[in-house]
Hints:
Layout: H1 2-17, H2 30-47, H3 52-76, H4 79-95, E1 102-105, E2 112-122, E3 128-138, E4 141-151, E5 157-159
Amino acid sequence: MFKNFVIVLLSIVLITACSKNGGRDGGIKKQDAGTIVGAVGGAWIGSNVGKGKGQVAAIAAGTLLGALAGNSLGASLDKADMAYFDRTTQHALESNKTGATSTWVNPDTGNQGSITPVKTFETASGVYCREYTQTVSIGNKEQEAFGKACRQPDGSWKIQQ
C-alpha cells in the first residue's frame, strides 16, 4: 500500500512540475487541479486492478491516463460550469441515497455532468465518507471518474481522492 502511495505521489509531483505557469496569485489553475484529480483517480482505479508487477503497471497507466483526461477537463470547464458541478456534487453527497444520481447542465455552454454516490461509510475516527462516480460531458466528449469525499466539520464535503 505504501509503495502505491509513493508512486501516486511521485506521479502527481512530476505532472504538476511540468506545468508552465501556475496561478500567478499563488493558487492552483483549474487545469492543474483537473490534472491532479485525474491522476489520483486513475491511480486509484489502477491500484484495484491486477496483482504484483501488473498492479504497478496498472497504477502507472491509470495515473497517466487520468492525468491526461483531468487536464483536458480542467482546461475546458469555465467558472460557471464549475459552480454547477460543485453545487450538484455537494447536494448529491449530502442528500442522495446510494445509487441515486444528480445531474447538472450549464445552459450557456451545454456542458453537463452527473454524480452518483456508490458507497457510504464511517471512518474509525467517526468521519462520514462517500465513494462516488461522476461524469462530465464537454461537447461530444464524456469523461468518467471515481472518487471519495468526506464530510467536514462545517458540513461541506471535501474530495479526498
